[in-house]
TrEMBL record:
Keywords: Membrane, Transmembrane, Transmembrane helix
Stretches that traverse the bilayer: 6-22, 34-52, 94-113
PANTHER family: STAGE V SPORULATION PROTEIN AC-RELATED (PTHR38450), STAGE V SPORULATION PROTEIN AEB (PTHR38450:SF2)
Protein name as catalogued: Stage V sporulation protein AE
Highest taxon of source: Bacteria
One Pfam family linked to the record: SpoVAC_SpoVAEB
Amino acid sequence: MNDYIAAFIVGGIICVIAQILMDKTKISPGRILVIYVTAGVILGALNIYDVVVEYGKAGATVPLVGFGFNLAKSVIKEVNEAGLLGAFTGGAKGSAGGITAAIIFGYMMAIIFDSKTKG
């Protein structure tokens, strides 16, 4: 049960920070997404985000910061195994499963539900 609470707290803090940025600044949501992924890459490359993932588990890996963290770790691993070429292939290999799942589930939802445009 403790893991669930830690995941809820870490994921909640990440979401609260994004909400505060949207409410209190003029930064667009798209730019906040880019900031989160970039922060995940930087923090992952510096091994700082490892501590957050160890404590928050899915609460730290599921949000976009976790995606950036996954990219950084995958590239580092691939560079260590394949050399410089790994800088180009590591991110694709490390994130392929998540991206594939997002595409498949997005497609399934598009089939099941009748989407409408805003306006």
